[in-house]
Every structure is written in structure tokens, then in C-alpha cells.
Write a structure and sequence with these properties.
The chain contains twelve helices and 17 strands. With 447 residues, it is α/β, with parallel strands linked by helices. α10 packs across α11. It is globular. The model has no long low-confidence stretch (mean pLDDT 95).
Amino acid sequence: MSDVYIVHCIDTEGPLNESLKDTFDRIKNIWDISLEPTDKNLQLLREKKIDLNGNEKAIAELVDPKLLNYNNSWDKISEMFYHISSKEFRNKFIDSYGNGWIYSWFCLDHIGYLENPRNRDLGFHKIFDRYCEFVKKTESNLDGIHYHYHPVPFSKKAHHCATSYFGFSDTLYQSLSRRIIDRLWFPCVYRPGFNVIRPDSHWFLEQYIPFDFSNQSYESTDGLHPDLSEGRFGDWRRAPLNWQPYHPSHEDYQTLGSCNRIIARCLNIGTRHRLLKQDHVDSAFLEASKNKPVVLSFTNHDYRDISKDIENVHDMIINANKKFPNIKFIYSEARNAIRQSMKLNLSSMIKLDVKLNNNVLNIKSSKNTFGPQPFLAIKTNKEEYFHDNLDFQTPFREWTYTFDEQTLILDNVDSIGIGCCDNSGNVEVVVIESPGKINEKILRNNY
């Protein structure tokens, strides 16, 4: 027998507004049904009293008051955070070892958009900084802060979806470069926006980020969500249906293979599709009874009330535990859950030896990095941020980078940042400020 590791992932995106008209526009976009945006029609939809050609149930779920009651300001999010982070609230939901609820906050940068009809908080670090402050002030030391990314759509509208990570913008590189240089931080755990993984993101993650909570495999689809049909956006139709983290194939991220990255299944709570149900929780406990490594993870958003979702999931966990009384469950932060369930080797941290010899950057790692190279970030004196590849001297262990007229002249460089992980999710970040100058300074963070 093994323990069931319980991981609550939150796609952490800050405040969200949606007007009555916006809600009815969503109905039009998803089901091609046009209705006058009135409070009366909203209530009739909730009561399923309008003929919608068989879509009554699905649309009633979309306009459920719980889903439309958004945290539309930082004040509301702050109030919710302090409530659910209190010891009193956490300890209402005790695991088998007497521990209270734990959160994993996957923080997004809203960047690259020209239109922002839902009034999201645009800009680098806006979400990340808020949650770092929240966690620090509440002494939520067991919680995790991780990485979340939304590809920029062709429309450049902040409420639209996309799948391409690199074809249209460099916002992913911009976001990570600034996290390294500005905040001395690099991710080891990831959740994708809209649950989207495609070959470009699959291969990018395989280079840099070892743990990935993205698998949304589901037993069947009920056909009620035409905007998500035929594998649009989060396509996980071929992925494992169990709760055992897996190494994906290089050719197909949904099937088992020999890649280094570990993917965990993560279903939704508090939304309209791919919802975590009692059968799923029961299956996790059944797998643990067969001594399988089990990570039961689920996700929702910080722009809705999280507390009710926690109560509902906790009820399902207790129900499953009654059916499998010999199985223990443990609340866990995302990185720890993968480490412990998969019994990863945590014997040593990764450490980078970084030096500048004239205009050549030399990087040596104390152990194999997760991917073939660390992530290189460069900030210029003009406040521009760039990412580039390194020159490989020894794959996974030693690299160089030359600053000259074919890359960037070192005199024009304000900072150089390097971020990397090892296979166990240990992180090392090194930033050289004022490189090559008398006042050169090296900053380091490992965790």
C-alpha cells in the first residue's frame, strides 16, 4: 500500500470581471445561441426555462451563481486568501497525519495583450509579487508558488485562448527571463493555461521544467461543450486515466515514454467541465491499495471562491477513505508530492559555478541538469530582456556563452541570469549584476 498525495493546484491569475453582456457573449460564442443580456433571462437560464435545443443543463451550469461570483478586485482576493490560509480554516480539513490543507499557487503574468475586457491585472510580476507577499505575511511556509503561462492569441485579447507558445510572441521567454533576473526565481513545477500542451510546449518543458501538472484525461465527454470538442485546447484524449505520474513520449506527450519530465493528472473543480468526481477519488485510493505511486491533484482559479471547492473535495476524500480505511492520505505541495510519490533522490542540491572570463561566460554544474542546458536570460542597459542558447562543452554539465558583436557587447549588458533544475526539482538561480565591471555582483538562490 502507498499513501495518496493530495495536491490542490490553483491557476493564480488575479482579479477577473465579467459583465452581464460578457456572459451572454460567451453563450453565443460557445453554443451560437443569441439571447438578450438581461437579469430576467439569466434567471430563466438558471432555471432551465428557455428552450435551448438540449443545451439547457450545460448553459445552466455555465451561469451558476457560484461560477459568476468573481473576485473582481485584489481586495476580494486578499480577503479570500487570508480566510483560507488561516490555521482555523486549514485545520477543518485534516489529513491522515493530522496536517491541515496545503495550496500550490501557479502564478501567471498577463502580458502581450492589446485588449483587456475582463480588467485583468496586466504586467510582469503583478500576480507573482502579490502572492509572494500573501504567503510571507500569513507564514504559509508549506504552500508552494509555481509557474503558469497563457499563450497569446492572434486577437491579442486577454480573454481569448491559444495553443502556440512561440509562433506569435516571445512572452514566455520574456516572463521567465524577468523572473530570473528581477526576482531570482525559476520554476520547477508547471501548469499550462487552458490545459494546453502541444509539441512546442511539450519540447520546451522537456528542456527546463521537470514537473508538469497538466494531464486532464477524462473517461468520456458529454458533448455539452462544443468550444472544447475534438481535442481543442487541452487535448488529453490519449493520456493515462489513472493517478500515477508518468514520463511522456518524445513524439506524443499523452503517451508513456522515455522523456525526463514527469506529468501528473490534474482535473478541474469549481468550473463547468472535466470535473473531479467521487469515482475519480475512489480510483486514487484503489490504486494506492495496489501500492502504486498516487498523486490526486485538482485545480481551480483564484478569481472564484476557493473555500466551497475545498469543502466539496474534502467530502469526496473522506468518502473514499471510508471505502479504503487502510489507505492514508496526505496533503502536499506540488513539488513535494511528485518527489515523495515517485521516490526521487534528494541527496544533493544542484549548484552552478558561474564565471566571466573577459567576454566569455563559463557555467559548470555540480550534477546533471534536468534538461541539456540551463535557461540563459540577459538584460541590457536599455531595459531589454533576451533569452539565448548556450554553447555546449559537456552536455548537462558545462557550457559557455560569448558576448560580442554577434550576440551582445558586454558593455551593453546590465545583468546575466541563469536558471536551472535537476531531475528532482531542485532549483538554482544565479544572476550577475554589472557583469565585467568593477562593481560586478553575483546573486544566488537555490531551493
